[in-house]
Design a protein that fits this description.
- The chain is an alpha+beta fold and 97 residues long.
- It is 39% helix and 19% strand.
- It is built from three helices and three strands; from the N terminus they run βββααα.
- The protein has a three-stranded antiparallel beta sheet, with no helix packed on it.
- It is globular and about 40 Å long.
- The two termini are 23 Å apart.
Length: 97
């Protein structure tokens, strides 16, 4: 029996998101829905490394580890939880599974 694949996530296209840092928080305006989301780290970093690619939490952790001083083993669980929150927060037009 094949091992089940990890969920894959895809961010909305960059031209559909207006990202504005605001002190420790970041505002993300989602053009398609007309909703502004207030997020904290590591959400902007996750969206930045995702680009327009279809990625698993492991893929995102690896990309973040390449850009920042973090280990992938600890990051995967944290990133998976944040991606699930993004799916809930941004809805079907934001981060998709």
């Amino acid at each position: 029996m094949a091992e089940p694949r990890s969920p894959r996530y895809k961010s909305e296209a960059a031209d559909q998101l207006l990202v504005e840092p605001l002190d420790a928080m970041t505002l993300i305006y989602q053009r398609r829905s007309g909703v502004t989301h207030i997020v904290a780290e590591p959400v902007p970093e996750i969206l930045a490394v995702m680009g327009n690619d279809l990625l698993s939490a492991e893929d995102v952790a690896t990309r973040l580890a390449n850009n920042f001083d973090i280990g992938t083993s600890d990051a995967v669980a944290i990133i998976l939880a944040r991606l699930e929150e993004l799916v809930e927060e941004l809805g079907p037009n934001g981060v998709r599974v």
